[in-house]
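We store chain and fold; example below:
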Amino acid sequence: MFFHHLAENRALALWALLALIFMILEVIGTKNVLRSFFGIPERFSVFAVTGFNAVLGIYLMGLKEKKMQTKNLIICKEIREYYHDVENLVRDSFWNVYRPDCYEHYLLNQIRNDEDFVSDLDYVMFLNNKIIGQIIFMKALIKTDEGRNLDVMTIGPISIASDFKRQGYGKILIEYALEKARELGCGAVCLEGNIDFYGKVDFDYAKKYGIRYHGLPENEDSSFFLCKELIKGYLDHTRGEYFTPQGYFIDETKVDVFDRQFPSKKKLKMPGQIF
C-alpha cells in the first residue's frame, strides 16, 4: 500500500531518491576522503535520513487525514429535498469548465422528469452531512447493424465538489453506482468522457466493442466515446451505433432564467474551454 502511494506522489519519490543518493555518497566518502575532511560524508547520510523522515512523516499524516474522511462517507438515493443543493453542486462543479458558465445544473433539473431517467440509479454522496457528489443514469440504446435495439445505459451529469476533486471520491461513487446498475440488469454503460479518468473504473474505447457514436464518421476521432460491460459477454459479437438519449438535448436559451435562483457567478473565458 505504501509503495502504491509512493508511486502516485512524485515529490515523495524524489525525496526518497535524493536520500538514497546521499546515503551512497556517505558510504563512498568515508572510504575515500582525506582524514582532514573526516565527518563531512557522514553528515550527508544524517541529513538525508533526517530530511526524508520529516517529509515522510508529513506525507503519512496527510494520508491519515484522507483516510479519516471516508469514515463519515454515505452514498444514498437522491430525494426531492436535495434537488436544489445537488443542482448547486453540479453548477459549482461545471462552472467555467467547458464554457464561460455552464448548463449541466439545468440539464439535471430537466432530465429528472425524462422517460429515460433511471430514478433507481440517482445517487448523492455525503461527507460529514454535506453533499459532495452526485451521479445519475439514463437509458440508452445501440442500434445494431443486424437491426436490433440493444439496451444500455449512460451516465451524466456526474459531479464532485471542487474541494474534494482528485481525492478518489469520484471513483468510489462511480464504482458504487455501476455495481447497483449491474444488479438492476444493466449489461453495459456507454458515455462521453476522458479515458484517463474513466479508465480507472475499467471503461475502454467503445470502438473496441464495435460500437460507433451516432453521426460521427468512422474516420473521425472517437476517443471521447467510452464503454464498459457490466455483464460479461453482453456486447459480444455486437456492431452498431450508439444513440444519445433525447433528454440530453435541452433548450439552452432557458438556462439563464433558471440560473437566477443560484448565487451570482462570474462568467470567465478560460484556457481549455471547448465552447
User: Anything to note?
Assistant: The longest helix spans residues 40-69. The helical segments are 2-8, 10-32, 40-69, 83-94, 104-111, 169-183, 195-198, 255-259. DSSP finds eight helices and nine strands in the chain.
